[in-house]
What does this fold into?
Amino acid sequence: MAGEKVALVTAGGSGMGAAAAKRLAADGFKVGVLSSSGKGEALGKELGGFGVTGSNQSNEDLKRLTDGAIERWGRIDVLVNSAGHGPRAQIIEISDEDWHKGIDTYFLNAVRPTRLVTPVMQKQKGGVIINISTAWAFEPSAMFPTSAVARAGLAAYTKIFADTYAGDNIRMNNVLPGWIDSLPTTNERRDSVPMKRYGTSEEIAATISFLASDGAAYITGQNIRVDGGITRAV
It folds into this structure.
C-alpha cells in the first residue's frame, strides 16, 4: 500500500536483531524477520509482518525473505544485518575452516542480502542498510578474533558500498555495540566500561531506528560506536 515502509531484519530471532525488529515495527515499518531458530518467523507474525525460518548464510533463504517482502508490499526500505556467533580460539589455533566460518558469519552475512536488496532500492531511488558490527572492529580483542578480523573487512566494504550507491540515495552504516545485555554478564566486563554497565539491546535498536530515519539522511559510510566509551579510536 502507498506510504508503507518496509524493513527486513536478518538473524532477528533474539537479542539485538529482535530488538531492532520490534523498534522498527513500533516506528511504523512493516517487518520481515529471518532467523534459523524459528523465533524470527514467530516474531515477524507477532509484529504484523512475516518471518522466514532460514540462515543468513543461505542465498536461497535470503531470497525467500526479500521475495516475501516484495510480494506483500512491493518494496524494501531498510535492511538490518545482524549475526550469530562465530568460532573463537587463540589466534594461531584457528583452523582455515573456522576462519571461513567467521567470514561467513560476520562479513558475508551482510554481503549476501545486500546483493538482493540493492537493485530494489535503486528502483525505488532510496534505501538504508544497517549492519550490526562490533566495537572491536578497530580496536581488536583476542577474545573475538574472527569477529574483529571479518568486521574490519565489513567496515571497508561499507565505505566502498556507500561511495558507490550514494548517488542512488542508498545509505549503508555500521552500528558497533560494546558489551550488550544479550551477552553473558561478568563483573570484569562491566567494570571495563567507563559507564560501568552493560548496554541494552533496546539502546542498539534505538540507534538503528535513528539511522533508518530521515533524520539520518546525510549519514552514510560510517561506523557508529554504541559501547559506553570502552573504545576510543577516532
Notes: The chain has a mean pLDDT of 94. The first strand starts at residue 6 and ends at 10. Residues 170 and 181 are 31 Å apart (CA to CA). Residues 145-165 form the longest helix (21 residues).
